[in-house]
Amino acid sequence: MSDSITIQPNPPATKHLYIDTVGCQMNVLDSEMVVASLRKYGYALTGSPEQADVMLFNTCSVREHAEEKTYHNLFHLKQLKLANPGKVLGVMGCMAQKDQKAIFERTPFVDLVVGPGQLHRIPELIERAQAGEKHQLAVSLSRRDGNVDDIKRSHETFDPLRDPEMRPTPFQAYLRIQIGCDKFCTYCIVPMTRGPEQGRAPEQIVAEAQELARQGCKEIVLLGQTVNSYRYVQGEKTTRMADLLHMLHEIDGIERLKFVTNYPKDMTKELLETVRDLPKCSPYLHVPAQSGSDNILKKMKRGYTTADYYEMMDRINAIIPEASVSSDFIVGFCGETEEEFQMTMDMVRRCRFKNSFVFQYSVRPGTKGAEIYEDDIPEDVKHRRNLDLLAVQNKISLEDNMKFLGQKVEILVEGPSKWSVRKGQTGDLRQMTGRTKCDRIVVWDGNVRQAGQLLPVQITDVYAFTLFGMVETTESTPNLLQIANA
Ligand code: SAH
Ligand code: SF4
Ligand code: F3S
Question: How far is residue 378's CA from residue 364's CA, in Å, rounded to a whole number?
């Protein structure tokens, strides 16, 4: 891969692409890459499978529910595909890597199955399918299929191709710094679908960030499964996450840097001090704890104890007192007792996360957990624990958001809010949304021309997950009332 990025103009669009994306930020980024590559072949995006020449599903395998939804969506398109054999139907992403040929067996009307490490081959595979070649399969090597360098290479993706139009806002972009994962938590399929952990070369990352800045991007979110474990070794030199932040901080035009997802064991003092000292770094840290019970953490093979996690929280709070920390939890993991679940509740109370994503354990064939433990917690118990944990978290989120009432915060304006889109608001005056530096969502009555600006907003009301505000009026950002009266 070269370090410099040359952008060629796209040919005029003559064909249509429909793409459905589920899963994590990695998939959102992968879809952006695939769209960018297909634009080079004359494809434009459409929201309608009926209009599309190519229909792609970017899939997730992290929980069974996500996979079943994908199969449901595929069956939904079966008649359309069979009535129009020239349309190409493809499954890409983690489910493609995990299930491979089995997808053709269950849904024989699918033309392509392409794993996340092979997405650069999509244009070629589409052409083959259009030429009548059935069942095109492109997947990376499995963990046991050869030497480690070949396996790693087969999972590499083609990051430097970017498509700003695919991003929800042109001012924010994801940038992958790490591929794969070697942690092998016993519940998790990701090390199998995304392959071995490998850091991308810092020069490539910086070149991509410079290109994003040139495109007008102000906020970059660095992505990795355990992003703070990032390491890149070149001869004698090792580049770590903190070094990378220093390098990216120099880029003009980039105003904010965030990174997800963090691994508790690698949240070093050096990294936290870097976040504190570099003004562009957001004091927002997503550090999934997964459970508040030592026994469960051990069975999950997470590699830390609750004492380690609490110590990390103390370190974060001591070095970055204004930090906001969020977490993921799995409830109903194999053998989780009520007492162990209560320890998770206590952890949420004690750590006071900004927010927590709570998941009910879903057994994943192919993981160690599926092999050695029984998925023995009834679904209704998992569901109740999920609701209980969210209730505690929501109360804390609301209480902590109250502290923002009357405060002025700086937000990066993303665009019209979801509410505005749902209500079909048109024209310049809309409900707008943006995020604070600590990743809190703010909405206010504003103007679409504010998109991409960093604005001071006065907070007037708060919910658990949203702050409501008023933008201080300046000449460039008139408020609704002024415009209405003009
Ligand atoms: N790399 C990230 C998480 C990737 S998956 C990390 O280590 O934190 C995102 C989240 O999905 C995980 O944090 C976990 O909470 C959840 N998850 C993963 N496997 C799961 C499973 N089998 N069942 C339920 N939730 C799961
Ligand atoms: Fe999965 Fe654990 Fe790796 Fe995260 S760290 S991707 S949970 S194996
Ligand atoms: Fe899902 Fe793959 Fe992401 S399994 S969570 S899309 S890495």
Answer: 16
pLDDT in tens, 200-209: 999 999 999 9
The whole-angstrom separation of Cα 196 and Cα 192 is: 8
- Residue 208 located in a structural domain: yes
Domain end among 341, 370, 403: 403
Residue 479's pLDDT is: 45
CA nearest 299: which of 226, 213, 372, 221? Answer: 372
- Looking at residue 474, what is its pLDDT? 55
348 and 271 inside one domain:
no
- Cα 188 to ligand 1 centre (Å): 6
How many angstroms separate the CA atoms of 372 and 466, rounded? 41
What CATH number is associated with residue 202?
3.30.750.210
Which mutation among 20, 21, 24 tests ligand 3's pocket best, with the greatest number of atoms within 8 A of CB?
A: 24
- Cα 185 to ligand 2 centre (Å): 6
Tokens of 202: 């810092």
pLDDT at position 476 is 47
Q: Are 259 and 287 in contact (CB under 8 A)?
A: no
Do 272 and 396 share a domain, yes or no? Answer: no
Domain with 337, as residue range(s), is 283-403
C-beta 386 within 6 A of ligand 1: no
Q: What is the C-alpha separation between 186 and 370, in angstroms, rounded?
A: 8
How far apart CA 321 and CA 307 sit, in angstroms, is 20
